[in-house]
Amino acid sequence: MQLQVRGKYNNNSCDVVKRISVFASHSPRNRFLLAVQIRLLYTSFQTGEFMDNPESRAELPDALRRNKFSWIIENEIAGMSRPREGALEALQKIGVRGMVSLTIDSILPEEEHNISRLHVPVGDFTPPTMAQMETILEFLRDNRPAVVHCLVGHGRTGTVLASYLVAEHGYEPGGAIERVRELRPGSIETVEQEVFVYQVAEKYGGQSG
User: Fold this and answer.
1) How distant is the alpha carbon of residue 2 from its chain centre?
2) Confidence class for position 47, pLDDT limits 50, 70, 90
3) Closest Cα partner for 187 from 151, 164, 163, 153?
4) Mean pLDDT, to the nearest integer, of 22-30?
5) 111 forms bridges with which residues in the sheet?
6) Is 150 a catalytic residue?
7) Which is more confidently placed, 114 or 145?
8) How far apart are CA 11 and CA 164, in angstroms?
9) For the CA atoms of 165, 170, 174, 176, what is the dihedral angle to 10 degrees?
């Protein structure tokens, strides 16, 4: 099958294309996830979601723009891709105190550039467990302003950010997902991740503030 997509796009789209390829196996779960990824990729191309929003990052250091850094709540919680060279120093300069790393491999010491770090390994295209989310929320409360990252900064990162909005600020799950996708296009990539945000709402509903 050939998928024809028209419209503008940038290098962010290449990240998703590369990651889709890892699901080209024959297991039922991987075929389902592949179908979800193709649907999301097609929709994102059509709506222009892979186009950068230069205005939202205009005031950021170059190192953070390269890492697709964006605030979800100004000076409180943000998302980004896996930190590259110069990112930690730039984060310190804008006042970030905490970092949650969701990649499987730990890439940084527990504290660097006066940034406390929590490593919570979560598989690609999956949500954290509820126990992991509880640990993340506790860390974020104690280390704000904070940033969350995975590899590309979309699926796992977006899921945690939306869950944070639900648990800490009383968002409805659908509204939280919509808000994160508005600020970080392509976020929350699978049905499983969406369902998790609703599960967080069931657990933390009415406890925000």
Assistant:
1) 29
2) very low
3) 153
4) 55
5) 116
6) yes
7) 145
8) 28
9) -20
Residue among 99, 136, 150, 177 flagged as catalytic: 150
If you search the block for the tokens 């009415």, which residue do you land on?
206
Q: Which residue type occupies 194?
A: E
Angle ∠(77,80,83) on CA atoms, nearest 5: 120
Contact between 201 and 208 under an 8 Å Cβ cutoff? The reply is: no
Instruction: Say how far apart CA 43 and CA 56 lie, in whole Å.
Output: 22
Residues contacting residue 129 through CB under 8 Å, at least 6 positions apart:
none
Which is it for the CA torsion 113, 119, 125, 126, positive or negative?
Answer: negative
The tokens describing 189, both together, are 């990539």
Amino acid in position 117 = R
- Whether omega for the bond prior to residue 145 falls within 30 degrees of 0, making it cis, is yes
The average pLDDT across 105-113 equals: 69
Tokens of 125: 């295209």
Asked whether the beta carbons of 209 and 174 are under 8 A apart, the reply is: no
Using only the alpha carbons of the chain, give its radius of gyration: 17
